[in-house]
């Protein structure tokens, strides 16, 4: 649907919509984190809060996981997402990166790009820029016809993301701006940085309007932003009203009344805002990122973010409080807010199918290759070599990120980077196997793009194992089919596939309880829900209703460690590790 073209500009003090001062009250919602059949529902709910815009990042690696294989269909249909925003009468802000951070795998950069360790990422390195140019041209083909001046919804496009926290290569920013403008983007371009002087200046460039990312100390942050952006509107491009979770840490919540007060302060100061996140959604499949500023910490599957619209689309207390605040400053649609509904509760017996992790044999390698050297999308690799020791010994290995060891097919320990456990005793035996899992690629700071898998040859008693190495890759998304096609197995011990069937009267959102399972992956009807891990804090996985159907449904899990319960329980409400404040 198109509406008459409008002009959107940056004036001396304000954003200008057809020449009139305009305040943006936006909310962030990342289309890859929401099932496409729920996009419209989430946009409508956001609109009920009084928002006039929706913002999304574009994740490059979601669209081009393999170089040259661009996909903008189905869950990747950015054009449709922007059109739905337009149909609901809202504006759109697009932040195509190419780097996005966002707690997303590799900060959005494809692994085929970062596998080239000679590239200088996020810089004017010509080889990096060549790839980025191709990407931006494709993304902008989608955005350009949807800009407000041609009757679409898009009012702003951001260049890079918090670049000042990473670098200050002005030639890089200049090139991103040039490519974006040449592709036909006519709306104002913005940058975002934390309101810290060197960051705001590092990410600055002529032609970019500075915005800030912050969630508290509003007055102080706006003052710093104003010093560095003396004219035009003030905008908090990421008003952090919640936070993300790492495996093994506590679940983050922020007090909704405090957040509402901060939002009020922001709006009272006349600033524009993008609430980060209005609806966080889910890191489906293997899309979760990780942090590492001294300790590697992978992200959980949920990206609920304690945001006003919960992961399953419910209106929360924070939503109501924010809506009341917005109503003081702008019109808010009238009407009842939908009340949360309990999801169906039932239990499904699971049938074991034995170890589904055979994978594809890539033959022998003199030295253990990294996952990056094995091709894009590799996240689970089996490395096997001859051990030939007649006594038990100690093995040390740099694994990224988690490895199950076996000697002559007997479990022989676990190495895990997140807690710094990189050595373990192993028994005597002939064949050593390491099954190495990548548990999320770092999305922030200097470790973006670091190689994964086995890094160098493991040491036994201080000596590098000589190899050769037999290497097998396991296609994790493909494991659903492996489990569904496999023959039943009598019992479960160690890595296993399990499957089951259940019937529903109609499609329904579900909450899959993972408490009785160790570490692995889960699917419903082939839809890859993501990872689960006993470590928590997340205890349930969100199953979006459109992934289910009336009649028979299938569930499959791949357990990498050890399960204590071979059934699947579906619960009424999510459990993300909530704490009472
Ligand atoms: C920064 C980034 C976002 C996100 C938030 C934290 O502001 O710009 O992409 O990572 O931090 O959620």
What do these coordinates show?
Helix content is 18%, strand content 30%. By secondary structure, the protein is an alpha+beta fold. The protein folds into three domains: 8-327, Glycosidases (TIM Barrel, Alpha-Beta Barrel), CATH 3.20.20.80; 346-353 and 477-580, Sandwich (Jelly Rolls), CATH 2.60.120; 359-473, Jelly Rolls (Sandwich), CATH 2.60.120. The two termini are 45 Å apart. 51% of the residues are buried. The site of alpha-D-galactopyranose has 9 residues, from loops. Alpha-D-galactopyranose binds next to loops. This is Beta-galactosidase. It comes from Microbacterium aoyamense. Residues 15-328 form the Glycoside hydrolase 35 catalytic domain.
Topology of helices and strands:
Blueprint: E1 8-10, E2 15-17, E3 20-22, E4 25-29, H1 39-48, E5 53-57, H2 60-63, H3 78-87, E6 91-95, H4 111-114, H5 126-143, E7 154-158, H6 170-182, E8 189-193, H7 197-202, E9 208-214, H8 218-228, E10 235-240, H9 256-268, E11 272-279, E12 289-292, E13 296-298, H10 317-327, E14 346-349, E15 351-354, E16 360-365, E17 380-389, E18 393-396, E19 399-400, E20 402-407, E21 410-416, E22 423-426, E23 429-437, E24 441-442, E25 453-454, E26 459-460, E27 463-464, E28 469-473, H11 479-485, E29 496-504, E30 510-513, E31 519-524, E32 527-533, E33 540-543, E34 551-559, E35 567-571
Parallel strand pairs: 4-5, 4-11, 5-6, 6-7, 7-8, 8-9, 9-10, 10-11, 12-24
Antiparallel strand pairs: 1-2, 2-3, 12-13, 14-35, 15-29, 16-28, 17-23, 17-28, 18-22, 18-26, 19-25, 20-21, 20-23, 26-27, 29-34, 30-33, 30-35, 31-32, 31-34
The structure holds alpha-D-galactopyranose.
